[in-house]
Design goal:
The mean pLDDT is 80. This protein has no helices and ten strands. Strands 1-2-3-6-7-8-9-10 form an eight-stranded antiparallel barrel. Strands 4-5 form a two-stranded antiparallel ribbon. The chain is mainly β. Strand 4 and strand 5 form a beta hairpin. The protein has one domain: Lipocalin.
Length: 109
């Protein structure tokens, strides 16, 4: 199981991805608390948890990956490539039409 995050980039919304050997990918966005500190339950990334609201299936070909994540608001398409200790992902939101390209660093849970 591999995890990645863009938490080092202070200007972006921090997203956490977890890739499972069975082809499942999950994502979580930390939620700001009353003290303006962000919290994230690791259950949100557990593919078997009812708290995991964002998930999909990924396809891996060599070091290239493609997946679609779906939640109650809609979906987003991702494609990219794994590099040493990071993954570079292009994304397209089917909710708001926004495109982005972000590097996510390997993250130990």
């Amino acid at each position: 199981m591999m995890g990645y995050s863009n938490r080092q980039n202070l200007n972006d919304i921090h997203i956490y991805f977890r890739f499972y050997p069975d082809g499942t990918v999950t994502a979580a966005l930390p939620v700001p608390g009353s003290d303006n500190k962000y919290t994230l339950s690791m259950k949100e990334l557990d593919k078997d948890s009812k708290e995991c609201a964002i998930k999909g299936k990924y396809v891996l070909k060599g070091n290239k990956v493609e997946f679609k994540l779906v939640d109650k608001n809609g979906s987003a398409d991702f494609s990219g490539q794994f590099q040493e200790n990071k993954v570079l992902l292009k994304s397209h939101s089917n909710i708001n039409g926004k495109d982005s390209m972000i590097t996510y660093d390997f993250y130990k849970w």
